[in-house]
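Need NAD(P)-dependent oxidoreductase's 3D structure for a figure. Predict it.
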Amino acid sequence: MGRPMVRNLLRAGHDVIVHNRSPEPARTLAAEGARTADDPREVAAGATHTALCVADPDAVRAVALDSDGLLAGAPAGGVIVDHSTIDPETTRVLAETASARDVAWVDAPVSGGEQGAIDGTLTMMAGGDPAAVTAVRPMLEVNGATVRHVGPVGTGQTVKAANQLLVGGTLALVAEAVLLLEAAGAEVTPALEALAGGLAGSAVLDAKGARMHAREFAPGARVDLHRKDLGIALEIAREHTRPVPLTGLVAQLFDAAAARGHGGDDHAGVLRALEALGPPGGTDAEPQASAAPTSNASRNRPTAT
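Structure prediction for NAD(P)-dependent oxidoreductase:
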């Protein structure tokens, strides 16, 4: 996600300083006009607004709090924008630490995938002080076609968690639909096109339905990362005593996909967990003599003679 977002900022005329834990992406961006820094502290020291996008809470804490981290170099009055997807509580703690140094923290996780980053059409859910969000909005809008201030620090992560439970649940349902169509002998490609044209249509169906049918799971957003995000959603639900039973079930499917070795696959690979529940080969098995008994209603239904 980071590279295309930096490229968009460069094209928009911003002076961008970059650091990456592995040096090759930074070298590539330097060849395109970015300046490079040896560590996050150097990045922050040279900028009024700093953005980071890493995988998990531990990585965010390291980038922000280490001796060579962002807060060691950020100037008073600066703003740090976190595009990572992490939990709201970690975000609030980091924001308090930043505030003690007169630095504002904005959590602005993104949705839209790598293609959205390339196209500059991401959705951003921004949590933070209104003045801080206003200050960084021009930077955010370079990569975000939809940028919404959703409340105080931490609420951006809460909205992203809601986003991820919706996406995860939809992925599971699209996978079920694909497997059902395949098992029943339908022409899957035109069937998916028909579904996309009706009320069942969604961005997830458009982006992932055909890939599921083709079993093309080269990673964009990985199963393991989506598992982490669903865990965040479940933790928020526990904190607020809000039952989310469907999300719990979907999280189990993602766990099962990872347990079967698909954690590094695209999150559409949740299909593998559902596929494993079916008969060998993914086709209908022969009916068994010990089939489950029919309901009383079925047994008592009159038959035509």
